[in-house]
Amino acid sequence: MNFSDFIKDNGKRINKEHYLHLVQVSKADGKINPDELELLHREGRKFGLTDPEIDKFIENETRNNYNPPYLLHEKFEHLYNVAEMILADEIITVEERKLINRFAIEAGFSDKTIANLTELLLTGIKNGEDEEKLFQLFKKEILSED
60 exposed, middle or buried (CB, 10 Å; 0-12, 13-18, 19+)? Predict the structure, then answer.
């Protein structure tokens, strides 16, 4: 099975590393709760994994270095997915905050941008905002300040 060839329903490519990072975020507080597990399964099924394959993937996950995409909207999408995972159990732990900040740093965002970006994502997702709207706000309000 080649995880790098998965295609989401909307036609976007997703790679193994990105899915692994979602698994890492779900484990950041030391346990995967039912809401996080449901989100991991939903994301995994979008690109053709069966539930047993997803469970095996989660079980065998090891910490990997993050290799972010090149394009800004793809970097934003990865961080949006990470924020969704953080909010799956409606509790934001210190470990989860550190993890999203680490991914943002490794994606090349500036220190000044990261605090505003993570707050935009966490607050926006909590309030039911969709990814595209948050991306437009990010470009308009946060990037223009940097």
Answer: exposed
